Structure formats: C-alpha cells, structure tokens
Amino acid sequence: MSVDVGRRVFVGSMAAGLPLLAGGGATLAFAQRQNGATRIQDPVVDQLLADMKGAVRSLSQASSGEHARRVASSLRLLAAWGASHQFDARVKDTIRGVIARDGRQMLIRRSADRAMFRSEARALGFDVRSNVPLPEPPVVDDATRQKIVDDLLTNGATARWRRVADTLDAAAMALDRQATLRAGGATLVSQTDPSICRMIQQELSYLNIQMVFWCAPWFYWAPEPCGLATSAYMGVYAVSWWYGC
Fold it and tell me: Is the pTM of this model over 0.90?
C-alpha cells in the first residue's frame, strides 16, 4: 500500500470512527457488538474538535500563548460536555470490558501504528512546511502505563482533559513571557521555569498512552477518539518544543 493510499484509508477511518491501530482489526467486531457501540453524533463536539485541530495547526507554525489557550479551552469544554453525557462512565466500562476480554497485560502493552500516527500528525500540519518537527512518541514504561490504566478506571477521561488544559494555560502564560523576553535576547523558558517543562512532560506521557488506547476500536462509540487524543498530544508537544523542554 502506498503512503498516500494508506493515509486516505486512515483518514477515512477517522471519519467513520474506526481508527486503525496495530492489531486493531481483530477487536473491531467486538467493539461493534458492545452495547451502545453506535458512534455519538453531536455537532457541538464536532465543532470543538475542529477548533482544537485548528489551534494545533497554528502551533505547528508559530509560538503563541493564544494558540495554547485555544487548545486548553477546547479541552475544558469537551470535559464539560463529557460530564453531562456520562462519558467517564462509558470510558470506564469500555476499559473494564477490554480487560475482561483480553487481559490487563494486553491492554498495557498495546502499541500504536507509528506510520498511522505520522499520517495523522501530518494532517494536523506537522510536515516539511511546519516549524515544529514531526515527533516520534517515546516509549513509555510499563509502570507508567499501569498508572494510566488505573487512572482511567478510577476517574475516566475528563478529569485528565481538565488537567491538560490547566497545564496548557500555565504554558501559555510562559509563552507570553518568552515572547516579551525574546525582544531583548531571551533565555529559554525551560531555563527560567523548569516546573512547566516537568508538567508538560508528564502530560505527554499520559497523552502518548491515551493515543494508543483511544486509537483502538474499543472506543468506536466516542466522537472521533483518535483525532481528539492525537490533537491533544500534538498540541502539548508543540508547546514543549517551543519552550525548548
């Protein structure tokens, strides 16, 4: 399959709510048999996702506190929407169902299709024309993966979206300061405020594994889960790059 055809298949799968992931096809039928597996259709969520993707594309080109705040705002509104639609309860039920069917170790050790990730990242503006280079998500150790699974089972997803939004808001203020300092030969934010870089790296680890889970067929019912997780990851990654973390 050519890269262009592969990307069209991947993007088409996003529109259908069926993200492709390494080994994902084997569980697609299971996902479709789950109760309420029909994809949630909500124009509000569609618009919020479109707004977040637009902000992430802007971050691929320029350092801007305003772009970071736009991503944060979209995540916070998505969290509010989720809280009013029992979204976390469905996330927990889905994860429990996967563990019951395939085992916890399979869930923890699942890996993403990196070629497909790169295709989605390019669709968000991270290509040869972007100022921020295309990333290669780092390997996350099993202990961290265990903590992320426990967090999803305990809290669902929306609490973490709010936490990522808080991190992005803090980063936006630092980006604003960085822009002011640059006018007079600024130092990197990572040198002046390392706590922000630590916060960002923690959220990147979480979002990295969230992409693995949310790009699997298990979340077939959610509104564009893979696009949401990848957009959040790329937005935080771009902020990290502009900081020099």
Answer: no
The contacts of residue 12 (CB under 8 Å, 6+ apart) are none
Token couple for 209: 């594994």
Most confident among 3-7, 90-94, 213-217 (mean pLDDT): 90-94
Tens digit of each residue's pLDDT (9 = 90 or more) over 161-185:
999 999 999 999 988 887 777 665 5
pLDDT at 141 exceeding the cut of 50: yes
Contact between 111 and 78 (Cβ < 8 Å): no
Helices within 84-112 (DSSP H only): 87-102, 104-109
Looking at the chain, list the stretches that DSSP marks H as alpha helix, in order from N- to C-terminal side.
3-16, 28-33, 43-59, 65-83, 87-102, 104-109, 114-123, 142-155, 158-182, 189-192, 194-214, 225-243
Which uninterrupted H or E stretch holds 127?
A: none
Contact indicator for 150, 183 with CB cutoff of 8 Å = no
